[in-house]
Design a protein that fits this description.
This protein is α/β, with parallel strands linked by helices and about 450 residues long. It contains 18 helices and 15 strands. The protein has three domains: about 260 residues, 7-stranded beta/alpha barrel (Alpha-Beta Barrel); about 40 residues, no CATH class; about 120 residues, no CATH class. Strand 6 and strand 7 form a beta hairpin. The N and C termini lie far apart (about 50 Å).
Length: about 450
Amino acid sequence: MKKINFIFGIHNHQPLGNFGWVFEEAYNNSYRPFMEILEEFPMMKVNAHFSGPLLEWIEENKPDYIDLLKSLVKNGQLEIVVAGFYEPVLAAIPKEDRIAQIEMLKEYARKLGFEAKGVWLTERVWQPELVKSLKELGIEYVVVDDYHFMSAGLSKEELFWPYYTEDGGEIVTVFPIDEKLRYLIPFRPVEKVIEYLEGLVDNNPSKVAVFHDDGEKFGVWPGTHEWVYEKGWLRKFFDEITSNEKINLMTYTEYLGKFTPRGLVYLPIASYFEMSEWSLPAKQAKLFVEFAEQLKKEGKFEKYRVFVRGGIWKNFFFKYPESNFMHKRMLMISKAVRENPEARHYILKAQCNDAYWHGVFGGVYLPHLRRTVWENIIKAQSYLNPENKVLDIDFDGRKEIMLENDNFIATLKPHYGGSIFELSSKRKAVNYNDVLPRRWEHYHEVPE
């Protein structure tokens, strides 16, 4: 019988510094019920990524859940997919830190009973140079959006297979996530998902449809807990998927053990489509949205969308100077404490991505997330001997002055009227200048 291979994955994450009640609510509404229902369906297979901050909270507050994960791994129902432990954007941190971050989560996966070979790319931010870092860690596959592949010139019909990608003579396999499935699961009736998957069946035995998206869509997002659990969507989905003879459920590792990637591709620097809008300066983001809307009105958007390219993730450092300064201070201390394990651990924490950018959710605008990043930067710097410096910290071509003693760090910008850009207390691990001005964002002008 002709079949379509199907890989189903979720990504569970809460940022370092988020409120305890947010972790608790997400756990009760999504993370716990999802895995408990998975346990009811021994033939169901899920590929799951859990971020380090979430795992640390679970281990401290819900240790029984760790036992459940171990049991699901042992039963062959759960494949652990890793990333940087503290959920950094890998393209935005030094290679040495990438390796340390991923190895930390690989080690945690071993505690769960799984030798991880795959990476969930944080915010799907791809940069070709990542290949060498991943290969060095024994990573065999990476999961990114189908948009990355279409940006490289592949047609939609060519995106039901994984491919190799190469950099510096090293290769890694890249799996494309099906955008259509991201919008179907779990928001549409199960029948619609099955209908779509069955429509993909053809004579090619290696064809595969990949769904991998936020686990919070299964209970945390507004209205989803009632739909997914109380109204039975997830149970019905697991039942239909595991009993359908036309759907061959697989993990990433099982697929690569049976089939060879289709060929070689070179993916551009990219993330998902929406990120190219959010990362633009506000005025340009507004024009970007207007252009996309115009194409939709003319019925041309789907045909030409792949050529509608906005900004890249690192543009947030241009868009928000406060984010850039925080990031460059992190890089500065990362280099200085690389040989000090305790200090370095704080820097790895400071690389958690959420406080550095802004899209739909608060991100850089949330003071408790920024405060946590600064807390860890300051704690890491406290391991170094105090030293006054004159250097270009934020890479804008102009030198700053850093004054430091045992208690305080003060950074001044002579070219900015001599303003004190940072005033940090080492004892309290707080940057008193960690503030943002009011800014106009492109979404403030909602079309009528």
